[in-house]
Specification:
Elements lengths: L1 E6 L2 E4 L4 E9 L6 E7 L6 E7 L4 E3 L7 E6 L4 E6 L8 E8 L15 E2 L3 E6 L1
Parallel strand pairs: 2-11
Antiparallel strand pairs: 1-3, 3-8, 4-5, 4-9, 5-6, 7-8, 9-10, 9-11
Length: 125
């Protein structure tokens, strides 16, 4: 079983930065991708960024150049550095881990097997 715990959310003004962390525990040796997703009330959860085991990254078009996904393997922690934040980045951010191969985009939530409880990010204009 894998446990994921996010932290680092908060309130920030537009143009500011936040760094989200996702600490993983349990059996984490075999994973294919780890991702960050966000959701706002009334909308579907959308993939923001994904990091594959080989180091490949995928970003949603609206965050390219502003967000950076990374992982510290020694600490079993996934990060999402968010710069130049915009009000439309507001939402609940979740990290997720995929432990099985998937043939589609790693920004698809159906690719993931384990989820954290989320951390809220609010960007004011």
């Amino acid at each position: 079983q894998v446990q994921l715990v996010e932290s680092g959310g908060g309130s920030v003004q537009a143009g500011g930065s936040l760094r989200l962390s996702c600490a993983s525990s349990g059996y984490t040796a075999r994973w294919y991708s780890m991702g960050w997703f966000r959701q706002v009330p009334g909308k579907e959860r959308e993939g923001v960024a994904a990091l594959e085991r080989d180091g490949s990254t995928t970003y949603w078009h609206s965050v390219k150049g502003r967000f950076t996904i990374s992982k510290d393997s020694d600490k079993n922690t996934l990060y999402l550095q968010m710069d130049s934040l915009k009000p439309e980045d507001t939402g609940m951010y979740y990290c997720a881990q995929a432990v099985r191969a998937y043939g589609g985009s790693w920004l698809n939530e159906w690719a993931y097997n384990y989820w954290g409880q989320g951390t809220q990010v609010t960007v004011s204009s």
